[in-house]
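Quick one: structure tokens for this chain, please?
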Amino acid sequence: MTNPFKPTAGRIPPILVGREEIIEDFDYALKDGVGSPGRLMFLTGARGVGKTVMLDTLGTHAQKQGWKVYNESADRGFTQRLVDALTGKDTTRISAYDMPSVGLKGDVGNLELSLGRIELEHNEERSLTLRQAVGKRLDKINESKQGILITLDEVQSGSMDEIRALSTAVQHLIREGRNIAFIFAGLPSAVNDVLSDNAITFLQRAERYHLGSVPTEKVLKAFEESFSGEKKAGMETLIRLTNATHGYPFMIQLVGYWAWRVSETNGHVNQVTEEDAVKGIEKAQAKLGDMVHAPALHGLPSHAVNYLLAMSVDDTVSNTGEIARRLNRSPQFANVYRTKLIENDLIEPVGYGEVAFKMPYLRDYLREHGAYLQMRENIGERSEN
């Protein structure tokens, strides 16, 4: 039996729970025609909520309708990579010219020297703007039936100059009535930066979907369906697995994957026992730390990490005034990093002057790795000063 859960970054899982509305809206936008608002979209959310999975899923739906799909991540040079892909990567044309022979005279007699052939490179396609490259590609397809979808992932990794270039190209193509769709994905704070850029205000009209937790009943239903065939699990086990995910999409995949895998290791071919579930959840929690928590913390300012470390002292909610005292900072200073952590879906306000962890098991990870993180952040602060 093949494990149906695939907790790999960017890999489309066989179970996509809680995202049906986004897929339906996008399908409708493609059928609705040029100018439909769902063809311009932002996907935001914390790491591990499935932004890349959603991009790939929407791309697959576009391909089923005959569209050409171009996927890119926003690291440096993505605009040129898009131009290369749109032009078939045939970016260099070679022209050969036969050169004339040159006759030389000297004491040793006549000498004829042939210069042979010289090859010249013409980078005509590389001189195209992104707008021109998309336009030329659209000219080659039947726009009454086909279009072009461009997806851009990891917006927080991109330079604003390149993001502006892509956004400007899309804006002009939409104004020209071309059959195009465009989807951004990134951390909430990065998307906010893009939307607040004065040069590309038209993107503020884009549909915006914040990918959050999946409702408990949908997670339970997904597990019931996954463990109802050749490998089964009792209701108590299914509820245990469901509660362990906290509705976090990547954790759904991790918990399902490791419960299934541990059951096979333990020789339970046709079932997942309570013992399998407990051990699988432990493995999933450890993997979540390595694959999600560590990268999320690595990208934060040192003061933001210290804010989280101060929160990890508490067993439940944290008082913002107490956190400022623990950090030996003013409430105003601490509030700057509180706001940033809320924007990135790592914590959430739960009452007046109170915050709590939003990303599951982050408190546990910080408690386990707190000493190392504090040392690293202290070194970072000294280098900044």
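The longest helix spans residues 274-298.
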